[in-house]
Every structure is written in structure tokens, then in C-alpha cells.
Amino acid sequence: MKTGTTNRIPILLCLVSLLFASQLFADEMQRMRLINDPYPPYVIGEVGEPPSSGIAFEVVKEILHRLDIAGDYKLYPWNRVSKIGL
Question: What are the residue boundaries of the structural domains of the chain, listed by start?
Fold first, then answer.
């Protein structure tokens, strides 16, 4: 069984699906808060700062731009991200 990118693809697809579903509520939602942990090469940056680059970050940023939704991005350690997200 492969590890690495293969395990992250379903997560990325789920995220993209949620972003497209959010278009239904675009009139009500002007800003979306997005948090993640640094996970090169998908999300690159320092904890406590917005991501500087990364494959997944660039995809999500472009999707939000096309949906006309502003994004607030910030990186946290994974333990904190999982607690905030729940």
C-alpha cells in the first residue's frame, strides 16, 4: 500500500468539494477562515504565520478566488489544528 500523497488525495478532494458547496452560501459568507499545519510540499510556511506557498495552499487559494470568497489563512501545529477544527 502506498503512503504519502495517496493518503492526502481523498482529503484534498473532500476539501475541494466543500469549497464548491460553499458557493451556495457565497452571498452570506464573505470570508472563510482556513487553518492547517505546515506540511511541505503541500503547505509551506512558519507556524503562527499565513502559508507562504505549497501545492494544496495554491489550489485552495485559487478556488476561493474564483468563488469570490476571501480567505484568512494561518498555520498552527497539527495538534492545535485538530482541536480547533473539531
Answer: 5-85
